[in-house]
Amino acid sequence: MKFAKLFSILLLTVIFSCKNETYSTEEIENIHAELKAKFAPDKRVELFDINFEQVDNQLILEGETTCKKAFNILLDSLKKRNLKFTNNVRVLPDSAVGNLQFAVARNSVINIRSNPKHSAELGTQGLLGMSLKVLDKKGDFYRIQTPDSYISWVDRGGITRMTKAEINAWDAAKKVIYTENFGYVYSDKSDKSQIVADITLGGLLKYITEDNDFYKVKYPDDRIGYIKKSEALVYNNWLQNVDATQENIETVAKTMMGSPYLWGGTSSKGMDCSGFTKMVYLINGFVIPRDASQQITAGKIVDEDLKFEGLEKGDLLFFGKKATADKKQRVTHVGIWLGNGKMEFIHSAGNVHLSSMDENHPEYDDFNKNRYLGSRRYLGEKDKLIIDLKEEIKL
Fold first, then answer.
1. What is the CATH number of the domain that holds 118?
2. CA–CA separation, 319 vs 370, rounded Å?
3. Global pTM value
């Protein structure tokens, strides 16, 4: 239903009398639902949670949103109908975080949780040096948004908060990227010196200087350290030379073989199925959606007949529960097609390992073959959900 029609219906729901006014919130809630479906259909990446209540013939709006445009449309619809209302909705970020509306991850891996407490489910992770938006604060936790737009909570010890000017300076600074799965940042130009902290694949630190063997680097919280040059590269040089070919997708994926499965993990310390595909594409120069159910909405549909035909190395395979008459399709797993004449794919389930759709292959995966939902191609495809880091910094 078009918004204009909904707004007209809203007028009919307002009943006037000489002495008082009574409002039905049903149509207002319908408008809210329409706006949410259009502007914020996925609460993992956009918030539009608003409640309506009538108190003393006045409409009270409560809740929170990150979508100012949708909220303004809602307010305009109320004002045009001369409805009396009190607006208590928080448009995030707000005064809870002040002017420190940005942050950078300061640990090798930061754990980002579904709720502001350490016991909450691990939703995703961030890597050292990752730039973040800060939306809200509750106790010792901050609600943040990662570069793939994922919204969740991180404890204050994992981040260094910044102003707009400070985050711009951090983003523009020359950096070093760590290219091994695991390693350390040292306090001096020797691997025998004190360890400043650990570091993992994809971690970023500010470049200061270098010699033959070490990069001198700075953390977002101003700690100084040294990284072996054999384990890292200047970020722009690395990115300029990244070539996201089918072969390089396979090469990077296989460097993670044996990595443990971790629900919510997106780092070389441990990763879930979509965290694995995300890391493989990140090290090939792309930021892709976080979850499998989001990844299936990006790229180009391939293998529509579900026969494992026409697939190319690097395509993402999706698995789960197929749609029925009364239930929608549910995506619960993802892997990367390798083919290699053996119908092989690589995925994180228990750990990162190879499986095959060929029943004669020793790693035949009957379970996933029977819940195959389809595939998507990312390589060579232009899609707003697939962020090309080369274009981001205009190399």
1. 2.30.30.40
2. 9
3. 0.90
